[in-house]
């Protein structure tokens, strides 16, 4: 049986690696991006917080940020906040979906959008177009760690748009399948390939399940 060569643009945990333990998938992993956490300066109570990434959630938890209501993207982001006693009142699969919920049900409220310096445009654009009052607070900076690979891969795992940007700066996807954690990441991958598989859930584990399902088929 031929070994399927797959590159992960994020180093995986031992439990995540176990998902492919009994398969013919050979995995190479590196961190395509680095995250630099910034100091949270706002110590006031935030009435309505928008949190769209696990990076932001972890920083807010560690900083013991005072958030009354939280609007989240992704089940894992929501779970992390709920486990730390935050009141998550809305969760969506992606940023545009969350923006739609806010416009429909919370248009007259004010929000603080906690994000990274390379945050996507969808959510702030949609909120601005619909005159929703919000401010942004940057919690972390993302650095692209571009690394050139001589070997060709059957598949590449992407867990963020920034990881796609980092990889494609010095590599071509060629015939590789891009396995993407969600539609936002997939939209970035579409700039470089049409060979894309999108996970139905925005988790690393679900994306790896899609990888196994694809190559088994």
Describe this structure in words.
By secondary structure, the chain is an alpha/beta fold. The protein has two domains: 4-32 and 145-216, 3-Layer(aba) Sandwich (Rossmann fold); 35-142, Rossmann fold. 33% of the residues lie in helices and 29% in strands. The chain contains eight helices and eleven strands. The protein has helices at 14-17, 54-62, 75-83, 95-105, 122-129, 161-170, 183-189, 204-216, and strands at 4-8, 25-29, 33-37, 46-51, 67-73, 88-92, 110-116, 133-144, 155-158, 177-180, 196-198. The strands form two sheets. The chain has a six-stranded mixed β-sheet. Helix 1 (14-17) links the parallel strand 1 and strand 2 (25-29). The longest helix is centred in the last third of the chain and has 13 residues, at 204-216. The protein is elongated, with a radius of gyration of 18 Å. It starts with a strand and ends with a helix. The model has no long low-confidence stretch (mean pLDDT 94).
């Amino acid at each position: 049986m031929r070994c399927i060569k797959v590159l992960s643009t994020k180093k995986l945990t031992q439990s995540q690696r176990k998902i492919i333990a009994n398969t013919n998938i050979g995995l190479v992993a590196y961190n395509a991006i680095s995250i630099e956490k910034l100091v949270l300066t706002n110590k006031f109570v935030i009435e309505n917080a928008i949190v769209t990434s696990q990076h932001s959630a972890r920083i807010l938890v560690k900083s013991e940020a005072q958030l009354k209501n939280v609007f989240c993207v992704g089940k894992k982001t929501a779970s992390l906040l709920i486990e730390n006693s935050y009141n998550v009142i809305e969760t969506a699969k992606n940023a545009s979906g969350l923006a739609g919920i806010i416009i429909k049900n919370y248009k007259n409220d004010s929000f603080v959008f906690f994000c990274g310096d390379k945050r996507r445009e969808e959510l702030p654009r949609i909120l601005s177009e619909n005159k929703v009052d919000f401010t942004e607070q940057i919690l972390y900076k993302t650095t692209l760690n571009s690394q050139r690979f001589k070997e060709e891969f059957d598949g590449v795992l992407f867990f963020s748009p920034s990881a796609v940007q980092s990889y494609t700066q010095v590599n071509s996807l060629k015939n590789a399948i891009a396995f993407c954690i969600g539609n936002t990441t997939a939209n970035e991958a579409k700039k470089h390939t049409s060979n894309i598989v999108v996970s139905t859930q925005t988790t690393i584990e679900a994306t790896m399940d899609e990888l196994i399902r694809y190559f088994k088929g």
